[in-house]
Amino acid sequence: MPQLRPTYALTLGNGLWDRQVLALDLTLTLAPGIDRLEAVLPPEAPFDAAPGEPCSLTLGNGEREEAVFTGVIRSVAPSLHGWRVVAVNAGGRMSAIRPAVTFEGVSAGRVVRDLASEAEVETGAVTDGVDLAFYVADPARTAWEHVARLAAMSAAFARVGADGALEVFEIGAGTADTALAHGRDLLRLTHRERDDAGTAFRVCGEAMAGTASAPEALRPIIDPLDGDAPAPDRRILFRPALRTPDGASMAGAGLTRAHQATSRQLVFQGWLQPQLRPGQRIELQGLPDSVATGAAWAETVRHVVTPSGARSHVTANRDPDGFDPLALLGSLGGALSAVF
Predict the structure, then answer these.
(1) What domain of life does the UniProt record list for this protein's source (predicted)?
(2) How many angstroms separate the CA atoms of 31 and 168, rounded?
(3) Which of 18, 41, 174, 204 is such that its CA lies 20 to 30 A from the CA of 334?
(4) How far apart are CA 117 and CA 225, in angstroms?
């Protein structure tokens, strides 16, 4: 990989830049984080794009080429050292909107699609997720924060695809999307683990209905915990929008999985890998025995291109040992309480 020459194609407004760019720095992340592209052009460059105009980026590492970003220019800052251009995608657009609307008898995915439509954002694959008797999208949160919250309730994650479309998806435990090898693709790797890696979440709704459409789904119960005192390693969260035990169990399972995975992180740097995106499952091959491995999925991906080279920086999370994706459907056994 080191002998291969990285390439790029940056579109800013009506201009195409495939050389002369002094630096490219693209950070991709899961919601509620916002993807951000920063480009630095020479001060003498014939640059004439303005905020609000389209921006896209394609990266190549000599072996493969991938479209990695589609969005709009957020700011332009000329200086003696060059033009500094910052662009964001659909996450940035939805973060500028604070909705005030109530939904009734819908799925989480339907709310996400409606919020995206209100923000004039295209949607790709959006999982339906948990059924909701109602959902209040209040202006205390941005539309993007609501999307992240709805995805978490559905044991799912939200991101913006390379084409600029909003996606809500589940990260399973199947085959890795890509493999990176120590000694070929990787330059540095650090494993870090917090002491709360065993913490579990219990989510409590405000009803005990069999389905979100049942009349009793609108009747709050007095004791969501049903008199059950939480264990020391159990965190309690209340989500009034969840009106069924299955919905609360799904949300608790998803939050537990995400928390335990982010407590067991792999942070690594390698030669430019334009195919990497948040939410992808990554297999790291050929690591020393002293480095803890396991199923890992990317939370944040940062691609940096400068005259001195091109690198990809990744923060990936390892699922708990023996993770079972069926747990996300409410079959957690003893890991979470069965009564919500």
Answers:
(1) Bacteria
(2) 10
(3) 174
(4) 37
Q: CB of 184 within 8 A of CB of 159?
A: no
User: Chunked in runs of 10, what are the mean pLDDT values of the chain (340 residues)?
Assistant: 78 94 97 98 92 97 95 95 96 97 96 97 96 94 98 96 97 84 88 80 80 80 62 76 87 89 91 96 84 80 95 92 59 32
Flag whether the pTM goes above 0.85.
Answer: yes
Rg of the chain on CA atoms, in Å: 22
Q: Are 250 and 328 in contact, with CB atoms under 8 Å apart? A: yes
Asked if 47 and 77 touch (Cβ cutoff 8 Å), the reply is: no
Count of all residues that appear for the chain in the document: 340
Q: How far is CA 270 from CA 140, 309, 310, 311, in A?
A: 39, 11, 9, 6
pLDDT value at residue 175: 81
DSSP alpha helices (H): ranges in the chain?
A: 90-95, 108-118, 143-153, 245-262
**Residue whose structure tokens are 């600029």:** 164
The SS3 of residue 218 is: helix
Q: How many CA atoms lie within 13 A of 97 on its CB side?
A: 20
pLDDT value, residue 326? 57
Cα 108-113-119 angle, rounded to 5 deg: 130
What span, in angstroms and rounded, lies between the C-alpha atoms of 34 and 235?
27
The CA distances from residue 324 to 42, 51, 156, 257, 340, in Å, are 51, 46, 15, 10, 21
